[in-house]
Amino acid sequence: MNAPASPETPLFEVVDLHVSSDEGVEILHGVDLTVRPGEVHALMGPNGSGKSTLASVLLGSPEYVVTQGSIRFRGDDITDWSPDVRGKAGLFLAFQYPQEVAGVSVINFLRQALSARRGIELSVLELRLAIMDWMDRLGMDPSFADRYLNEGFSGGEKKRNEILQMAILEPEVAILDETDSGLDIDALRIVADGVAEVRTDRPDLGIVTITHYRRLLEYLQPDVVHILMDGRVVERDGPELADRLEAGGFDQFRPFASAEATP
Fold it and tell me: Which end of the chain is more exposed for a tag (fewer CB within 10 A), N or C?
């Protein structure tokens, strides 16, 4: 496990991050983000603003190239770390569209992932007790553990499965990429309650949630809201910024984005 960060060291930090696609087109133009233990950060922006690109880059996706800046975790520069090394170190990404894995049960997937995270081989029996406890806390049917990963799952089941993974793997930083996508209000509340349940066990967990909508933030109550437009953070403030966004939409921030883009 990682040594605890000092009070002066951010848990997770993105510094002047510039990112290009494989074709050389720059998508992110100097993004900064600092997350301290226990903080919830919300990243909001319209379609095409670079939100999901940022999420992928933070977890080390090979689809993108970091051309400038750095990503730091507990003071260590992890910009060049591979996705599996980042995951083992304590970074977690909840996907917007979780993939189906035929033939691999939820419990076997979690056993393999947690064994890699802890560096020891866990048995299915050892893990089943922990999974059953968390499934009860998250309001999930126990039979869920033996179903194939995301195969035939509803949208809400896929998202709750992501929260189950976050609970079992005990990450230090969780990046939630549009976890609210495609959920009705009841499913959204269930997922948000699940995140809150995990945070009761892990109060130092840092969370970055990426979303289009204010409704998720009503449950998660972020410490900081960032507005991302045209690959730049054009505004950041407390939770009241989400209220401004709800009232005036993204257009009110476009002049700032244009000004940032002007040489």
Answer: C
40: nearest Cα among 217, 163, 166: 217
Tens digits of residue pLDDT in 82-137:
998 999 999 998 876 667 677 889 888 888 888 888 888 888 887 888 888 898 88
In order of their start, the domains of the chain are 12-95+171-261 (3.40.50.300), 99-152 (no CATH)
Which residues have CB under 8 Å from 24's CB, separation 6+?
none
Beta strands in the chain (DSSP E): 12-21, 26-35, 40-44, 64-73, 76-77, 91-94, 101-105, 148-149, 173-177, 206-211, 224-229, 232-237
Are the beta carbons of 187 and 158 closer than 8 angstroms? no
Please report, to the nearest 10 degrees, the dihedral formed by the alpha carbons of residues 185, 190, 196, 198 taken in order: -150
Contact 43, 54 (CB under 8 A): yes
Cβ neighbours around 40 below 10 Å, total: 22
Q: Tokens for 258? A: 């244009």
Q: Tell me the mean pLDDT in the region 134-143.
A: 87
Strands (E), 98-222: 101-105, 148-149, 173-177, 206-211
Q: Nearest CA to 51 among 194, 262, 209?
A: 209
From the CB of residue 43, how many other CB atoms can be counted at a distance below 10 Å? 26
Query: Whose CA is closest to 190, among 138, 129, 126?
Result: 138
76-77 and 206-211: which strand pairing? unpaired
Does residue 61 sit in helix, strand or coil? coil
What mean pLDDT comes out for the span 45-54?
89
